[in-house]
Amino acid sequence: DEIINEFWADTLRTYEMFMWPFDQAIARSTNGIKWVKKFLDKIVNLKNKIYDNLTSSDKSSEILLHQTIKKLTEDIDGFRFNTAVSQLMILVNHLTEQEKISKDTFEKLVILVSPFAPHTAEELREQLWNEFSIFTKAKRPTYDEKYLVSDEVTLAIQVNWKMRWTILINKDSDQNQAFELIKSDPKLSWYLTWDPKKIIYVQWKILNIIL
Question: Is residue 149 scored above 70 in pLDDT?
Fold first, then answer.
């Protein structure tokens, strides 16, 4: 009750599903709860980036959206809620970096988030569309295979294990090519004031820079 009063029920619900595999137990962390609250706040703030005249968001956002829909479809059905939320965080961080997003992209995001943060999703839907409840008529978004077959993938960039950015990169790029692209990006090169102690590269997924 104390956690819900301070951080809201959606934060606790999402935190419980995100921090570890659903069939395992772990000690609760206040810092982890605060981090999830920031994630949900980012989703709420995205509504300020919606442009009604956009028929779709940029190519990288569309690709990542459909990748997310596919992963959530598989992960939720398989009770892998922690990896589903992790994928949502990658999508939300990417959309936060964009200057504008389409209403269609945001609506699909709200529906994807609804199993984890139902109150937040319902309020956003009511504010933007004033239509029926997500849980009575809305259908789970479906992914389009054409967005999954691409020469480019969205690579998550972490610095000291913290998510900082996403970049679009050729799927055949190796670690050196990915790192060179980061150095040429003014938003990311700021983190490279110090030489990295270690670089962890998972092809098509994550590059983590340890400073």
Answer: no
